[in-house]
Amino acid sequence: QVQLVESGGGLVQAGGSLRLSCVASGRFFSNYDMGWFRQAPGKEREFVGTIRWSGGITYYADSVKGRFTISRDNAKNTMFLQMNSLKAEDTAVYYCAAVGVGRTWPPNAYDYWGQGTQVTVSS
Fold this sequence. Notes:
It is a single chain. Helix content is about 0%, strand content about 50%. The protein is mainly β. Strands 2, 4, 5, 6, 9, 10 and 11 form a seven-stranded mixed sheet that branches. A four-stranded antiparallel sheet has the order 1-3-8-7, with no helix packed on it. The radius of gyration is 13 Å and the shape is globular.
């Protein structure tokens, strides 16, 4: 069982930056591929990006590629989402997720989810 807690959300002006964190409880954090998702009001949840268990491979949605960077520190059971050049359309609740390492890459499903952190970008 893995519990995930996001933090770092807030209000930022367009063009600004934020860094989100996702801390995982439980053992063997490095046994999980991790992902970020977001959900804007009135919209379906949207994939943002994912990072392999080792941290060596990442994959992003086209909408954030070149602006967002995912990293992880397995020693601290933490994943990060560095968001630069933020736009109003990035406003959403951001969720982190985890799935046990498998042969599928990028993962097509996740088993554990955090409660989310709100990111609001003012234009």
